[in-house]
Amino acid sequence: MLLQCTLQRQLIRGQLISLKEFFIVIGIVAGYGLGSLWVDTVAGWRYMYGISSPIAVIMGFGMWWLPASPRWLLLRAIQRKGDVQNLKDTAILSLCQLQGRTFHDSAPQQVDDIMAELSYIGVENEVTFVEMFRGKCKKALVISAGLVLFQQITGQPSVLYYAASILQSAGFSLASDATRVSILLGVFKLIMTGVVVVVVDRLGRRPLLLGGVSGIVSSFLSLRL
């Protein structure tokens, strides 16, 4: 059962990651749209920041209701850092919250499978910070940090941040015109991100990554020219 659930999550992992980016781009488009409303207002940036505050507060409160990681709870149970049965019951509730009603009946079996896996691996040695730089953890760290570095070093976030200024230098003399045109840039990014959400698990993350980076490089060369 645990293997089946793991395979199901593997099949949509790329989609889940891309959905996170999709919602970020929705925020970018909303920011462009709201920015265009106050671009000609004196100290309009105060309103732009202020209107995002309620959303941040809602998100902050919402984090209190996030379920704890079932694996972390069961690890604590094995390490005898709490009542074992209580931690198992909490892990079952967390799984039901995370996976939905479809997996409600199988949650207890999944908990038992995770417990068996953790017991087999063994927890007699405390994991230290240095473990991040060894073995499989080191490889995962290098890949994840490399992807984040690669994303930032391309400079594409800078284009998004300064889209209005770049468009002004390209010929849109009025700040209001440049800001409104930047909305089209955000909408285009949103559409393409939506396409990736749909096809990422069929085409694969690596081809999309290489193709996207190639497009970014070509766009920046065109921008420089």
TrEMBL record:
The reply on keyword Chloroplast is: no
What GO annotations for molecular function exist for this entry?
A: transmembrane transporter activity
This protein's GO CC annotations: membrane
Name of the protein: Major facilitator superfamily (MFS) profile domain-containing protein
Query: What start-end ranges are recorded for coiled-coil regions in this protein?
Result: none
The keyword Ubl conjugation is annotated on this UniProt entry: no
Output one GO BP term.
Answer: D-glucose transmembrane transport
Q: Where is the Major facilitator superfamily (MFS) profile domain?
A: 1-225
Question: What does the UniProt keyword field contain?
Answer: Membrane, Transmembrane, Transmembrane helix, Transport
Q: Where does the chain cross the membrane? A: 21-39, 45-66, 140-163, 183-200
Principal subcellular localization: membrane
